[in-house]
Design the sequence.
């Protein structure tokens, strides 16, 4: 497929998914996907698909994205087979990698997580109905042997496994990261409510979910708690609530100081990554010192959310879980990487 055909293919996929997302047939598909992963809810599955439609399968977004790079990046002299190892924490979390590989003219050999394989199988079927040539560009596989390059997403432990098996080939191997927010104490209710989306979307399982707040000395959490109260139904999810009950009991038994609004625990802690149902916070005294702190830990941080330009690529409140095509995981430019495997 030529570049224009690829753009049209993904645009038409977006239109197709938009038309189907509220149909009874699609809801049955989502229910099946939910049965494979107890962390997946119908709302979260729809949220993920809608984000993909809006951010990845929108024609203007696709064309603007392509315009960021030299045209030859999308027209390699020789197509390579690129293995993609996807995580299963968020629905279709590996779909951005699929688009990057196919848009650059390579073949995406996709190993879905066993907990998130239903939707990608459906999407491939939909793509085939739009353009049968997609079978040459997207392959679903159980094993990723003898490929030309790899893009693998996992934890710190699985990254060592990936290094062992994929280290001899060009690769992007992603490890654990987490995200943080910087507050000034002057945020309004809407901004704090949007921050709630950054914290609770997908139950906080993603690397783009906010796991820690940096707040000024003497910060009053009352407006924050009031703004996120509409998320209280999250405690109706048994796995989330089990985490909440467990962490609460640990803190109470050990006399650990914390705040509790009935579905979220907030604890003063220097660590960046917090357990599910728990949000860490830390006080800062001046922004310059905080900037240096964040810079020194940038290899551990995926996203910084703030109303301040605290880092070069700070996100607005509510945007952390809606990355665009050029919002790369671990800040590694996937398109430039793919251009190097087939100059």
Sequence:
């Amino acid at each position: 497929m030529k570049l224009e055909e690829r753009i049209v293919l993904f645009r038409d996929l977006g239109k197709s998914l938009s038309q189907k997302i509220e149909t009874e047939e699609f809801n049955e598909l989502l229910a099946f996907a939910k049965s494979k992963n107890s962390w997946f809810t119908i709302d979260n599955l729809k949220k993920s698909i809608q984000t993909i439609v809006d951010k990845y399968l929108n024609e203007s977004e696709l064309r603007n994205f392509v315009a960021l790079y030299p045209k030859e990046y999308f027209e390699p002299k020789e197509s390579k087979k690129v293995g993609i190892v996807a995580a299963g924490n968020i629905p279709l979390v590996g779909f951005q990698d699929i688009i990057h590989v196919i848009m650059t003219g390579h073949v995406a050999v996709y190993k879905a997580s066993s907990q998130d394989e239903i939707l990608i199988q459906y999407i491939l079927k939909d793509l085939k109905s739009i353009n049968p040539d997609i079978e040459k560009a997207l392959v679903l596989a159980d094993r990723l042997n003898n490929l030309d390059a790899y893009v693998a997403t996992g934890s710190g432990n699985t990254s060592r496994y990936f290094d062992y098996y994929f280290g001899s080939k060009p690769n992007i191997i992603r490890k654990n990261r987490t995200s943080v927010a910087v507050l000034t104490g002057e945020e309004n209710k809407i901004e704090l409510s949007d921050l709630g989306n950054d914290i609770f979307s997908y139950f906080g399982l993603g690397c783009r979910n906010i796991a820690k707040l940096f707040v000024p000395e003497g910060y009053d959490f009352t407006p924050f708690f009031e703004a996120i109260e509409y998320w209280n139904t999250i405690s109706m999810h048994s796995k989330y609530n089990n985490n909440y009950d467990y962490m609460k009991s640990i803190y109470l038994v050990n006399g650990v100081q914390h705040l509790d609004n009935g579905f979220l625990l907030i604890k003063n802690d220097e660590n960046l990554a917090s357990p599910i149902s728990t949000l860490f916070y830390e006080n800062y005294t001046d922004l310059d010192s905080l900037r240096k702190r964040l810079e020194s830990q940038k290899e551990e941080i995926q996203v910084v959310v703030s109303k301040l330009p605290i880092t070069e690529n700070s996100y607005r409140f509510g945007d952390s879980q809606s990355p665009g095509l050029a919002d790369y995981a671990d800040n590694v430019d996937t398109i430039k990487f793919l251009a190097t495997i087939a100059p």
About this structure: Residues 3-20 form the longest helix (18 residues). The CA atoms of residues 55 and 324 lie 5 Å apart. The radius of gyration is 21 Å. The chain has two domains: 3-176, 178-306.
